[in-house]
């Protein structure tokens, strides 16, 4: 029996694969489909808004939430901590909305243990050379950072077998259609449709 009406989608991808491009379009296009807002100790970047991009907190507040078991999962990445708030997520799911979590692979695997019916999507670049090309094209990283990201990409790609769906982001439109298809197929899974089917059945 499901304990909440909303669905949890997790997407992970090596940096530069096109995850933000795909995720932003999904959230903009689908009704009842929102981004998860994580809690982090990292400083806000210019333009980021507290309560929209992240809940920005200090170390003490983060420690307190860990102590109170307030996170479904949390990790330390590059010296900062990031976590998915238990209460926040439960509230959104109870309201019937689907949530998209953009979290790195370690957190995704932990989340799967806490929410076994989370739908896990891994996005792959079509090749190593194309990933490097996209990282360069984005113009956000130094040469050293690009080499670091390429090395970390290999580690992340090795975890693909822990995911339910593998989407190769070669042709952007095709990858987007595949992502949307995963969401729609999830929404009509039998276990998600039981109460609707029962209501229809009652009328006979
Ligand atoms: P991520 O969020 O995974 O780090 P981005 O969404 O920022 O990646 O995309 C990285 C770069 O690759 C951006 O410049 C984006 O426009 C480009 N990109 C995304 N998808 C494709 C695609 N299918 N083909 C070519 N370029 C793409
Ligand atoms: P950024 O600092 O660039 O916003 O995020 C850095 C990394 O942290 C990204 O890979 C992002 O997916 C990941 N991340 C953001 N929020 C969370 C979270 O709540 N949990 C986990 N496990 N990872 C997160």
Task: Tell me about this structure.
- The chain is an alpha/beta fold and 204 residues long.
- It contains 8 helices and 9 strands.
- 46% of the residues lie in helices and 21% in strands.
- The strands form 2 sheets. Strands 2-7-1-8-9 form a 5-stranded parallel sheet, sandwiched between helices. A 4-stranded mixed sheet has the order 4-3-6-5.
- Strand 5 and strand 6 form a beta hairpin.
- The two termini are 24 Å apart.
- The structure holds adenosine-5'-diphosphate and guanosine-5'-monophosphate (5GP).
- The site of guanosine-5'-monophosphate has 12 residues, from strand 5 and strand 6.
Essential attributes:
binds guanosine-5'-monophosphate, binds adenosine-5'-diphosphate, 46% helix, single chain, four-stranded mixed β-sheet, 9 strands, five-stranded parallel β-sheet, Rossmann fold, 8 helices, 21% strand, alpha/beta, 204 residues
In a nutshell, what does this entry contain?
With 204 residues, the chain is an alpha/beta fold.
CATH architecture of the domain at 8-36 and 97-201: 3-Layer(aba) Sandwich
| Topology, number of strands | 9
Radius of gyration: 18 Å
| Helical stretch tally | 8
CATH superfamily annotation of the domain at 8-36 and 97-201: P-loop containing nucleotide triphosphate hydrolases
Helix content, binned percent: 40-55%
Strand residues, percent: 15-25%
């Amino acid at each position: 029996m499901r304990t909440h009406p909303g669905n949890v989608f997790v997407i992970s991808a090596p940096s530069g694969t096109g995850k933000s491009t795909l995720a932003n379009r999904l959230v903009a296009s689908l009704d009842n489909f929102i981004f998860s807002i994580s809690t982090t100790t990292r400083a806000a970047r210019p333009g980021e808004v507290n309560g929209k991009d992240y809940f920005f907190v200090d170390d003490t507040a983060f420690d307190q939430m860990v102590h109170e078991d307030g996170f479904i999962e949390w990790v330390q990445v590059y010296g900062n901590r990031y976590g998915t708030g238990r209460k926040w997520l439960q509230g959104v799911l109870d309201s019937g909305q689907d949530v998209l979590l953009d979290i790195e692979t370690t957190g995704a695997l932990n989340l799967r243990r806490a929410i076994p019916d989370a739908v896990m999507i891994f996005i792959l670049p079509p090749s190593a050379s194309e990933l490097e090309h996209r990282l360069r094209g984005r113009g956000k990283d130094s040469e050293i950072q690009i080499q670091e990201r390429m090395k970390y990409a290999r580690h992340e790609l090795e975890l693909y077998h822990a995911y339910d769906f593998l989407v190769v982001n070669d042709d952007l439109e095709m990858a987007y259609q595949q992502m949307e298809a995963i969401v729609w197929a999830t929404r009509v899974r039998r276990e998600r449709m039981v109460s609707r089917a029962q209501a229809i059945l009652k009328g006979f």
